[in-house]
Structure formats: structure tokens, C-alpha cells
Amino acid sequence: MTIPQEQKSCIDLHCHSTASDGALAPAELIARAAEKGVSHLALTDHDTIAGLPEAREAALGAGLTLIPGVELSCVWRSYTIHVVGLDFDETSPPFLAALSCQNENRWQRARMIADKLSRLKVDALLDKATALAGGEVPGRPHFAQALVDAGVVPKVAHAFKRHLGAGKPGDVKACWPELNEVVQWIQDADGVAVLAHPRKYRLSATRLRELVGDFRKAGGRAIEVSISGQSSGDLGFVAELARRENLLASQGSDFHFPGAAWCELGRITKMPEGLEPVWHYFREPVRG
Fold it and tell me: What is the pLDDT of residue 173?
């Protein structure tokens, strides 16, 4: 069960906008976060920081502190893993170059998805999905909505079940860099590398311990312990991983769209006692 935080500062360090696969534009996301009582928010779109300028301007008007963020895709032992970068230098030329490469990887994947779904005879499917993504790289949710709009399927869930889910034609894998390389990108930009939602990879306990150990050895500094919709058992297990590997603890809703009560901005499982919050180590530490 997820509950609103009761601390003075409501901190949400994982969410998405239309700059990647979210449903709300950055400014709309900020407005919703402020409405939900969030005081500090990291916008962590997939492999892009394109939404940060709009989000920053909106945050100033909403009285909310915006933390620079991004969620980077990478590979560890053939598994696709996500690493959140927080509080980095947005102007770092090497980091911007790395993001450009990630962006091209995503466009290549989007073109492949459109090609795989061409048999459905939806005119300009890639263009329609791109429009739904606000002109940014479309992900599978945007293709799913485009299929709904074209009348191919009645609901987004049906689009995933028939065309875009695991093992379906539109389930296209991208060619991502290795875990240690992505962690290095974040370090070089003076940011904090955070292992995102560790229980979502469906790894065995042993394999997950190995992942967390390799992540720390690569220079990773934190792990997402508290996320929306997480069971108490998973919460306790990940908290123990953080203690075992001496990692800082992060938290976030992983918000993508309104209407999912289990995944709402600011509604995050309470952090277990005895963990060191990652936000205490930002360039401008957050206390309270």
C-alpha cells in the first residue's frame, strides 16, 4: 500500500513527461506535482533532458524545487537495466553527446517498431506516434495510443496484448551501452547514479544481488528503495541491499500518467529507518 509522505519535504525523484513516455507536458507535470504537495521533484525522462527547460520555468512559478534528472537505458549481462542520473551538470559537453547517442538509439528503435507494425496498415504510424510524444521520440505507449486512435484496437491494453507487449512484433529491443559506461557518464557530469526500480527487472534474488554489487563497483552511489506500488517484502529486500552495499537510498513515484492511484506523484512508500537519503548528498542538500 502506498501512502502520502508526512515529512516536511515531499520528495519525488522519478517521473516522466511527454519528452519521453509520459502523458503530461513538463509544465503540466509540475503543476500536478505542486497540487499533490511535492516540494522537490526530479524529472527523469528516458534518455533525454529535453523537458527540463520547460519544467524549470514552471517550477519557479509553482514554488517547487526541480532536481535535474534523467533515466538512462543500459545493458547488464544481456538484461536491459535503467539507471537514474540526478543532480548532474546539464551543460557538460560529454554528457550531452552521450544523450544524443541515446536519443538516436531510441529513434532507431521507434522506426523499427513502426516497420514491424506496418502490416496493420495504419497510415503514417510513426508520425502519429511522434505527434503523441510531443515531437520527441515515441515509445511503445505512444504507438499503442496511435493504434487506438486509428481504430485498430479499442484500448491501449489491447494494443500491448496483441502488438506491443513482450514477444509481440512491436516489442523491439534497442542496442544500449553497458551499465558501467552509463554510470561513468553520470559521474563525469558530477551527478549521482541511482539504480532504478530494482525489483521490476524480475531477477532472482541472487542475480539482483550480483547486479547491485556490479553497479556499486562501477561507481553507482544509490538505489531506489521506496517506489510506488511496491510490496512490503520488496521494500525490505531492497533496503537490505542498500545497507549491504553501502548505497544511498532514493525514492520516486515513476509517474507516467494520471489515473493510476498506485503510481501518483508524491505517493511513495515510506522509507525504512536507518538508510541515508540520496538528497542529503546533492550539491544543494535537501533536509527536512
Answer: 84
